[in-house]
Specification:
alpha+beta, 4-stranded antiparallel sheet, Alpha-Beta Plaits, binds alpha-D-galactopyranose, Ribosomal Protein S5, domain 2, 41% helix, 11 strands
Length: 350
């Protein structure tokens, strides 16, 4: 990054940081219902370098663009919002980042459901803290990243992605309680390999559909007289009107139970039990939550037919990636067979 920064801006950076993308192993669309999820950081990361300057300017080595921005003004609705938003959130927390030139490089794919935006937000916050000498704990860093995404970037996301990027540890699954932000780490057993495969179709612009799912979940909780769907039992759901709202709630309630069962299966190194929960999760996301696509469903089917213990879409859905549980010594052959049947698919992480 040092050499690239010098090339872009003609001097050395003053601060550098990075943050990882994540794969969510199970527990999607539960975070904003104050529920549970189980992400794991990827080895793919976003790197940020910065130095004080006369004005705010960002360069992305990934799209080759350089743009000026201003964290004190409303969002511009382009990629610089993922830099300006975190700086504006830091300012609300009393940490004033002076005008800086920023360089970004990432190998976290965008629109793939593996948290490229959280990786950028967390890396910007970490670099800003390094530059200013200010301190925030990892959970506060995640909160600031989420607030930036909510308020600046317009996605009413939960805290899953930012917590995974800020608090997660490579090679470990992170059981997140999104009500308390309590996090428990568990090492991924040696007999487990999580393959992350992109279906070849980028996630469409889905902020509207995502925000609508969140609104339905909040409406279901309201009708049940609960603070959040986290507190609903399966029996309670029959008092919701039959149809879409009940189906959305059924996904959240059943998914929370699956996450807790999956964490136990992980700690017991029970790949069959873990895999079965992943596959159930996929069908719940596809049928009750309606966030899957033909390409994701097809890839999950092939992953299973070719021997994965379990497979599911990961992240928000509507395109992007599938995560599959495979045996480590079978992973390469498994992927060769799956890839042959899905020429557009590619391995994000094997
Ligand atoms: C996106 C959001 C997260 C979470 C997932 C679905 O990644 O940013 O907060 O809701 O979708 O689990």
């Amino acid at each position: 990054m040092k050499a690239a920064f010098e090339k872009a801006y003609g001097r050395a950076p003053e601060a550098e940081a990075s943050a990882p993308g994540r794969v969510n192993l199970i527990g999607d669309h539960t975070d904003y219902a104050e529920g549970f999820c189980l992400p794991m950081p990827l080895s793919r990361r976003t790197h940020v370098a910065m130095a004080r300057a006369a004005r705010f300017r960002a360069t992305s080595l990934d799209n080759g663009e350089t743009r000026d921005f201003d964290p004190g003004t409303p969002p511009r609705r382009d990629w610089t919002d993922y830099v300006a938003g975190p700086l504006s959130e830091l300012s609300k927390r009393g940490i004033e980042v002076p005008p800086v030139e920023v360089l970004i490089r990432s190998d976290v794919p965008q629109g793939a459901g593996v948290s490229s935006s959280a990786a950028l937000e967390i890396a910007v916050i970490r670099a800003s803290l390094a530059l200013t000498g200010a301190a925030l704990d990892d959970i506060e860093i995640a909160r600031a990243g989420q607030a930036a995404e909510n308020l600046y970037c317009g996605l009413q996301c939960g805290i899953l992605d930012q917590m995974a990027s800020s608090v997660g540890r490579e090679g470990h699954a992170l059981l997140l309680d999104c009500r308390t932000n309590e996090a428990r780490l568990a090492a991924v057993p040696e007999s487990f390999r999580f393959a992350v495969i992109h279906c070849g179709v980028e996630r469409r612009l889905v902020d509207g559909a995502y925000n609508a799912r969140r609104a339905a979940v909040e409406e279901a909780a309201r009708q049940l007289g609960l603070r959040a769907l986290r507190d609903a039992s399966p029996e309670m759901l029959s008092s919701l009107p039959e149809g879409e709202l009940r189906a959305r709630a059924r996904h959240v309630v059943s998914e929370n139970a699956r996450v807790l069962a999956a964490f136990d299966a992980l700690e017991a190194a029970d790949a069959d039990a873990f895999g079965a929960l992943m596959t159930e999760s996929h069908y719940s996301l596809a049928e009750d939550y309606e966030v899957s696509t033909e390409a994701l469903d097809g890839l999950v089917e092939t992953a299973l037919v070719e021997g994965a213990r379990g497979a599911r879409l990961t992240g928000a859905g509507f395109g992007g990636c599938v995560v599959a549980l495979v045996a480590p010594d079978e992973a390469e052959d498994w992927w060769r067979r799956v890839g042959a049947r899905h020429p557009k698919a590619w391995a994000v992480s094997l």
